[in-house]
Amino acid sequence: MRNQTVVDLRIDADWIIPVEPAGRVLDHHSLIVGEGRIQDILPSAEADARYLFRERVRLPGHALIPGLVNAHTHAAMTLLRGYADDLPLMTWLTQHIWPAEGRWMSPQFVLDGSRLACLEMLKGGITCFNDMYFFPEATIEAALEARIRVVAGLIVIDHPSAWAADPDGYLLKGMAVRDAHRHQPLVSFCLAPHAPYSCADKTLEKVQTYAAQLDLPIHMHVHETEDELRQSLSQYQVRPLQRLHGLGLLGPQFIGVHGVHLNDAEITLLAEQGCSLAHCPSSNLKLGSGITPLARLSEAGINVALGSDGAASNNRLDVWEEMRLAALLAKGATGRPETVPAAQALAMATLQGARALGLEADIGSLKPGKHADIVAVDLSGAAMQPVYDPVSQVVYSAGRDLVRHVWVAGERVVKDGHAVFLDEAPVVRHARQWRDRIASGQAPD
């Protein structure tokens, strides 16, 4: 008894899936948390002798996995979920989404939309999201209320908006947001130039300068549609990735989003530069953009993470769905069922997302020393039986509806399927009020 260590939390589960090493499953183990970090993972039979705990959570029939990482989203666009469906990307953007944003965009719009997004994501086991949107301080406010980890994208675009008038304005305002929140433990930042087709060379050169000086990732849509490639060839005489490479943007800090239309030379370039890619299969399918060549990317050694994209083009912020769909699409595209096995798909949704964001030292796997970002998945129900391989079961059979508990930095933020810090009723009520205003064409305040 004298040698027992006092810790904050002990979680007992039938299975712990740490993600690294790949495919490993620990049966009947306990996860020990202290001061927000994982202190130990050990057989439950040994935990009694080694630890005293302030709280113990027993989860028979459950698997513990790392918190999921949504590597690309536009959180506030939950308020435009279903607003303009079944349209090609540029029609969807230029004739519907951008005009709606031009009319309704405000700090309150972003705050209410981000609260809805944080609620959906946390209840679905997402503990970290990489965002790209206007008024990032409002998204940060919502994330801190919910206690979810956020990588706030400081958007840069040549088009004026309610947030800023020009690229210099976006950068200056973005830096002010970073300065105001850079010491928040759940908040980090990236530079988020929207896309090659919406940012001139001069804009991208400034982004690269800021990224290099401040050691920030660059998060950017790229090679999403064939139209984007044709436009780049017409305007710049090179494809977008080659243009970005010439401007110095590609490197280990670069997170390309989508990468649907990539030739072999571009895949080699991404690999040589150490870039990451955020794969958003549902959004790409829904917008008719195509299918990212995931198997070729993986074979080239490119770090591929998973993203939902915004709810206006998906329409779910559901990394479980992206995980399963990514694996199945890769198998179907190659004709090889061994392509993207379950362990790799789970790593894409967790550790590889953390790696893309530069956070792999702290999150993305269940490992002593890392932040205790943990998801408990209930595998006890009839639809989950029998459980031969918990990793396979999590990827191919389970879904966000089976998430029962979520911890971020050791703090329980979802308990028995309900968010702890966000009151669901007003979040939903505000979303419905926005729907009524937007659908009726009511003038903004």
Write down the Rg.
Answer: 21 Å
Number of DSSP helical runs: 16
Strand order of the largest sheet: 3-2-1-4-13-14-15-16
Q: What's the total count of β strands?
A: 16
End-to-end Cα distance:
64 Å
Structural class: alpha/beta
Q: What does the largest sheet look like?
A: 8 strands, mixed
Runs in which pLDDT lies below 50 for 5 or more consecutive residues are none
Strand coverage percent: 15-25%
Report the average pLDDT across residues: 96
Structure write-up:
By secondary structure, the protein is α/β, with parallel strands linked by helices. The protein has 16 helices and 16 strands. It has helices spanning 44-50, 89-104, 107-123, 136-146, 167-181, 201-214, 226-236, 240-246, 264-273, 281-286, 294-299, 319-334, 342-349, 351-356, 390-397, 424-440, and strands at 5-16, 26-34, 37-43, 51-66, 68-73, 126-131, 149-156, 187-193, 218-222, 254-258, 276-279, 303-306, 374-378, 403-408, 411-415, 418-419. The strands form three sheets. An eight-stranded mixed β-sheet has the order 3-2-1-4-13-14-15-16, with helices on one face. The chain has a four-stranded parallel β-sheet with strand order 5-6-7-8. Strands 9-10-11-12 form a four-stranded parallel β-sheet. Helix 3 (107-123) runs parallel beside helix 4, helix 3 (107-123) crosses helix 16 and helix 12 (319-334) packs across helix 13. The model has no long low-confidence stretch (mean pLDDT 96).
